[in-house]
Amino acid sequence: MGISYCIFVVAFLYTGAMAYANLSPNFYASSCPDLLSTVQDVVCDAVSKETRAAASLLRLHFHDCFVQGCDASVLLDDTSTFTGEKTARPNAGSLRRFDIIDEIKKQVECICPGVVSCADILALAARDSVVALGGPTWTVPLGRRDSKTASLRLANSDIAPGSFNLGQLISNFAKQGLNLKDLVVLSGAHTIGLARCVTFRGRIYNDTNINPSFARALQRKCPRVGNNNTLQQLDLVTPDIFDNSYYKNLQCLKGLLHSDQALLNGGSADSLSKTYAADTKTFFADFAQSMIKMGNIKVLTGSQGEVRTNCRKVN
Ligand code: HEM
Ligand SMILES: *[C@@H]1O[C@H](CO)[C@@H](O)[C@H](O)[C@H]1NC(C)=O
Ligand SMILES: *[C@@H]1O[C@H](CO)[C@@H](O)[C@H](O)[C@H]1NC(C)=O
Question: What is the pTM of this model?
Answer without folding.
Answer: 0.94
